[in-house]
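Annotated sample (chain length 304).
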Amino acid sequence: MGGTVDARQLEYFLAIVEHGGFSKAAAALHVAQPSLSQAMANLEADLGVSLFHRMGRGVVLSEAGAELLEPSRRVLRNLTAVRDKAEALSGLHGGTVEIAAMPSPGIEPLTTLTHRFTELHPSVTISSRAAFTPEDVVGLVRSGVCELGLLGAAKPVALSGVDVLPLEEQPFVVVAGPGGDVPDGAVLRPEDLGGRKLIAARGGSLMRSIVDDITAQTDGTDIVAVVDHRTSVLPLVLTGVGIAVLPASWTRLARRCGASVAAIEPTAHLHVAMISLPAHLTPGARAFLELTRSYARHKQSPTP
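Output written by the structure step:
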């Protein structure tokens, strides 16, 4: 290596990857594209490897570039942590906490946690990145894209090399549109849903497996709509397309929108957990994780 790698070069490198090319990265960084290209040429010369394969007007990460991704994210996050620690002497001032969250945990407990955190630290931004499976969340945390991950799984979460903080178990409930014949607060058995039209997620999720079990056990129950985005489910319910089976995290929002929510017996539970790599957390992420621990203790303490 003939020179010293600096943080600016790593920031440029990650921007090119994030935005899918030099021109978009230059626009996002508000720098001239020739300056960006020169910075990358210098970085490749210093490292002695090519980070990108040029393909027409686009670029694709080389094997060496892919290997540099995670260390680059770590370096920049650690530099941010140094700045944040200096500011933390008088409290948290600024910065961003990156959290990967699956759809249902992203409703709750993320809403409650974000509300409490922003009241305590109003100058810190919470940035939530969408993830659709537990594997997605783990990948975003392991790779350094996000500091924290909020996931829900069919069983208690156990991971190697990643800290897991169990938060709560969310039962599944039936959500029906206003004015229907599903009484709010009722307790239903699968056979009570016979003849209903159901809104479901695509195969592979716990939510879909519950719906499939219901359709298999009852007569005249059909899946009328299948959606990828869980945020589409509640609007479809509210417009009368059908009913849905959702984790209890949706209960408060559904009722505020006028929907009815009924319990299902028996039902499965979504095991919600926060994951992290503690050695690589900024002060803001540590503060968010400590708040999450407090939330978990409250949830798991016996109710008098």
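Annotation: The chain is about 40% helix and 25% strand.
Annotation: Residues 234 and 254 are 7 Å apart (CA to CA).
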